[in-house]
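Continued from yesterday's entry.
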Amino acid sequence: MGIFDNKYLKPFKNIYLLVFIVFAIWMLFFDAHSLLFHNELNSDIKELEYQKEHYKSEMEKDDKAIKELSTEEGIERAARENYYMKKPNEDIYIIEYEDSIAKQKKDE
């Protein structure tokens, strides 16, 4: 009785099948172009595409802000809202709502 008489080991008598199995294992796990490496690269590509879309949307927002600030009214509005600047003989009142004020700790 030989080692390949078992019904499960009989297909391994074929040398071509053995070579194919070794080749497949080598290509899937150990080669420079392995399946694991390709999965890692695909996940990197997806992440980079997400970042690309994010930066495109940020660029669109910045372009809109630049167009807005290119007019005299846009500059004046930005100066008033962000830097609390005012015209001469003008008063500014800053209104803060309760939910916009940071809550202080009770023990302070």
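--- second protein ---
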Amino acid sequence: MSTVTITADAVEVRLTAVEKAAALRSDLRVPRSAVRSAEIVDDALGAARGVRTGLGVPGLRKLGTWHSRAGKEFVDVRDGQPAVRIHLDGHGYASLLLGVDDPRAVVATLTGA
């Protein structure tokens, strides 16, 4: 299971070796200055839209990059896990859709609420 860490400078997503292979990418680090907003997502598996590069197991797990008209989104979600969507500016990804244990705390940390 990946680990999401929020520091004063960055949002970091650390993937296991198996997840790196499935997602077709390495760990991800996004500067906090690129974070525009964050929101809680109720249906994380249904929220990922577009053409994927990575793992997609219907009803269970999505991991990788989803490409749509809105831009690229890094997705790391699983069934039954709460999630947040982090909107970005000035980064290679337009957003991150991440499964986390406490989405309210993540949103509060990122938005200063």
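Helices lie at 17-23, 44-47, 103-111. Strands lie at 3-6, 10-14, 28-31, 35-41, 51-57, 61-68, 71-78, 83-88, 95-99. Will compare against the first tomorrow.
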